[in-house]
């Protein structure tokens, strides 16, 4: 009987661990992040939408270890200089530093 309880507990922990890992993976998916940040659902991100995210992070006390200059990051990613980031621009990795 004790063995059954322990086995059930282990299976429960494994199931929880798998669900938690899937949630973390979704949080890192650029498309999921993009859709979450795109508050007006126009399929593009404005600087204001990104800055609003920064304010929410600050209010929640979850400031990043290394502060990000949102405006500079936005300007670097906005390749076509239209004042918005589409999913492709948002998802693009920055070039590696030499």
SSE inventory with pairings:
Layout: H1 2-28, H2 30-37, E1 45-46, H3 47-59, H4 70-77, E2 84-85, H5 87-91
Antiparallel strand pairs: 1-2
Organism: Formosa agariphila (strain DSM 15362 / KCTC 12365 / LMG 23005 / KMM 3901 / M-2Alg 35-1)
InterPro entries: EF-hand-dom_pair, EF_Hand_1_Ca_BS, EF_hand_dom
Pfam families: EF-hand_7
Key features of this structure:
98 residues, mainly alpha, Recoverin, domain 1, two-stranded antiparallel sheet, 2 strands, 4% strand, elongated
Describe this structure in words.
With 98 residues, the protein is mainly alpha-helical. It has one domain (2-91): EF-hand (Recoverin, domain 1), CATH 1.10.238.10. The chain has helices at residues 2-28, 30-37, 47-59, 70-77, 87-91, and strands at 45-46, 84-85. A two-stranded antiparallel ribbon has the order 1-2. The N and C termini lie far apart (61 Å).
- Please give the number of β-strands: 2
Major sheet attributes: 2 strands, antiparallel
Structural domain tally:
1
CATH domain class: Mainly Alpha
Q: What's the mean pLDDT score?
A: 79
Oligomeric assembly: single chain
Using the CA coordinates, give the radius of gyration: 19 Å
Name the poorly predicted regions. none
As a percent range, the share of helical residues equals: 55-70%
SSE series: HHEHHEH
CATH architecture: Orthogonal Bundle
First CA to last CA: what distance?
61 Å
